[in-house]
Description:
- By secondary structure, the chain is α/β, with parallel strands linked by helices.
- It has 3 domains: 1-98; 134-377, no CATH class; 385-591, Rossmann fold, CATH 3.40.50.
- It has helices at residues 3-48, 52-97, 129-133, 139-150, 155-168, 172-182, 192-200, 209-231, 236-264, 268-283, 289-296, 305-320, 325-334, 336-377, 432-446, 480-497, 515-529, 585-591; strands spanning 385-386, 392-398, 411-416, 421-426, 456-459, 463-467, 502-506, 534-540, 555-560, 562-565, 568-571, 576-577.
- Helix 1 runs antiparallel to helix 2 (52-97) and helix 8 (209-231) packs across helix 9 (236-264).
- The two termini are 54 Å apart.
Amino acid sequence: MDSTNIFNERKALFEQSFIALNRRYNSIAALRITLFIMAIVLIVVFANIRDGLGIGVTVIVFPIIFGLIVKKHNKIAEHRDLARFSALINQQETDRLANRMTELDQGNQFKNKKHPYLHDLDIFGHNSIYQLISRAVTPSGQSLVAEWLSKPAHKQEIVLRQEAVKEMIPMLDWRQAFQASGMQHGQEENKFHSLLQWINEPNRVLDMVLYKALAYILPVITITLIILNIYVGLSIYFTIGLLAINGIILKKFAEYVENITDKTFKSLKTLLAYGRMIKIIETADFKSERLKFLQSVFVHEDHNASDSILKLQKILDYLQARSNMFYLFFNFGLLFDLHLVFKAEKWKEQQKADVNQWFDHIGELEAINSLAGFAYANPEYVMPDISETDYVFETTEMGHPLIPKTERISNTISMQGKGTVNIITGSNMSGKSTFLRTVGINIAIALAGGPVCAKNFTVSRLQVFTSMRTEDNLEEHVSSFYAELRRIRMLLDMLEKDDVPVLYMLDEILKGTNSKDRHAGAAALIRQISDTNSMGFVSTHDLELGQLTDELPNLKNYSFNSIVEGDEIIFNYTLEEGICHSFNASKLMEKIGIKM
């Protein structure tokens, strides 16, 4: 069964599950309303007949029953949302395979036109590589996917990522459950900055021994006075007096409690999602070195990270209920605010040092899951070999991952050695630019640790550089030609650093000037960069540049050609050795109405 059918079947199953769970959710919602009305009616009835025992039983029993039903309701809501998000995940997978990616996150926040290749290779934005690869739903995961696609990793790191990705590829149920759990943070913005700010603030009440003692002693006295009032007839004023003392204590800490709720209330759903993601991580049976390492930070002998995160979420969730009628009632009698603040600060004291590491490791698992999901959806892709030898790029049947399979044309090429230059000539619209993007995109994915669109693929660690979409900038008074010159200056600066070997791709080199200057400048640049720590591709319409093979032994000519049959121009988009031997500009001009 192909990937599309698998995803469609899973989507249908999750949609059926969602419908069934939603029915149960609505039924329990109706039951909650009914119970609440019943409790109010009973309290009114018992009050009218002056039945204190009946009121007491109602006030105690109904909140317990109501709480149990709410817990069940929330559990069903969790499973319902998981089913809904799981259906959405499988819909997104089929959308990627069909190149319908409009609704997917474009990663626009990571765009950078000054980066060596991001803009030219469509790494971010509409119909981008990021949309094709990223399954990350947390900020840390999205940032790491972007980072991996933006710079080459070292070989040892790539190998570790590849091992982790290979292990995770067949774990379809686990991967989608992990992703769906993270999607449960809802539509709210992630406010983890303010949450982390609160976590890193010093504690204020944890060491207040007197108030900690009062938080336990006063509620016991309050309950005792209420019982004595009901059964012995003790004056109600004793109870009222003690409740007033409780109120004064609550007032003392009210501003601090409000500060906690203000900084955390928009993070509750996200915190819950993190807790569920961590629980899924803890239950996995990983084998690869990287996955076992990432899992290890969540599992401890005395506690698990998921339990800790969910414990904090519950504490903060209870604090958010301070405006609830039941909470207000019990808060005055039992000093809930103090108990919850003590618990929250104790949590901070115990877990503060671990929190950032937990979130970072979730992000890395999301990045690995993204590459694994990309590989699973495209089983014909291959995991590249990373060469120990510098200046190596060899591939057979390499295609562009953003072009649909039915339209994709694959090409084969091999280049090795410092200073290697491939001149690519070709007629208009023959595929030169697309081929350069195909090379750059697949290398970027390979050096991120992912699978590539090819039958075979070997590459050494390289820094990709492109100069393809040079644009004018009216604000900076920069013409498109000068923009290209600045881009070339950026390449020359990079080559002077003598850092990672560079693989450059220069498309339609120096296209913004006259043919004489263009040829002289292009030839000079090729001579200059052929003697640097680099290798690369230069596409051009200038056939004379191909003659540089006479003086530069590392230069080789390739071309894309077309055939003119009558009024039609036929492109095969296949890379051939040698200088271009077909031309179509005149025919293209004729087709749009120019009388040649």
